[in-house]
Amino acid sequence: AGGGAGQGAGQDAGPAAPERVLFPPTFSVSEIKNKQRRHFMFLRWKQQQRKEKLALRKKRRKEREALGDKAPPKAIPKTIENQRIYDETTVDPNDEEVAFDIATDEFAPYFNRQTVPKILITTSDRPRGRTVRFCEQLSTVIPNSHVYYRRGLALKRIIPQCIARDFTDLIVINEDRKIPNGLVLSHLPDGPTAHFRMSSVRLRKEIKRKGKEPTEHVPEVILNNFTTRLGHSIGRMFASLFPHDPQFIGRQVATFHNQRDYIFFRFHRYIFKSEKKVGIQELGPRFTLKLRSLQKGTFDSKFGEYEWIHKRREMDTSRRKFHL
């Protein structure tokens, strides 16, 4: 009778408020045997978590507004990047050993302005249409680059021909199942040679809100987060693909951004709207690289000496350990 009276009183008072889900402290969704019920309870639990997080955020914002200038500084959120395990090979710009290596490495002639970049872009044997279009678009990004097709030639025969024709770098785009999936970059005539896994390739027509075709102006180059000795070498390798003096009138910029050992490439055109605002427009193409190996000298798959090889089971033991 008491239960009936309680229900009657609730109905007379108007529509009842939605019941708040209260989960016990030791609640575990995985203990629910029924699959549909488990999925439903998981969604309700996630919804409750979002509401509590939003309420806590609003409470903190009101407290900061009430304190005004006396509010404590905002806490820096923990991310994988700022919790990175320290690498003893991190480059110190004041290190004499690093300065000596930079002055005597294979890229020193380029940075001393003794050579002008001249790039040969080629593909794996019998490339498909998507790979061919990607090479053609890549040649519009890198000045003084030329696209030639393999025609069944081995790289060991191509490299001497490139050196004889004064090419400074060789780029080979590999494909698998009609999709570009690898990039080999070899600095000529003495190396080194880097092998990258390529993913997330987007051609210009596949990019939303893209700009007009890029012009022939020499672009600016941005290299981000190449902090270790290995990353420093890779960054210098990318820099040596572009001429020294960018033509700022073209307002084009090529960016190689390293994050968690993934190298993201983007090509943009920019315009200054005011002293504080800049508008950017992606031109494409875009792709992501993951370093697999760095080899001394030019390409030699059998007898080449490797400076660094990515070994997943040995090197990927921690998510906070990065090599570039």
From TrEMBL:
Region (Disordered): 1-21, 53-75
Pfam families cross-referenced by the UniProt entry: Brix
UniProt key word Transferase: no
The organism's place on the tree of life at top rank: Eukaryota
Keyword Cytoplasm: no
Example of a GO cellular component annotation carried by this entry: nucleolus
Brix domain segment(s): 117-300
PROSITE patterns xrefs: BRIX (PS50833)
Gly residues composition-biased segments: 1-11
Any one GO molecular-function label of the UniProt entry: rRNA primary transcript binding
GO process annotations (BP): maturation of 5.8S rRNA; maturation of LSU-rRNA
InterPro entries membership: Brix (IPR007109), IMP4/RPF1 (IPR044281)
Regions of compositional bias (Basic and acidic residues) in chain numbering: 63-72
Subcellular location: Nucleus, Nucleolus
Record keywords, A-Z: Ribosome biogenesis, rRNA processing
Predominant subcellular localization, coarse grouping: nucleus
Function description: May be required for ribosome biogenesis.
Protein name: Ribosome production factor 1
Originating species: Odontophorus gujanensis
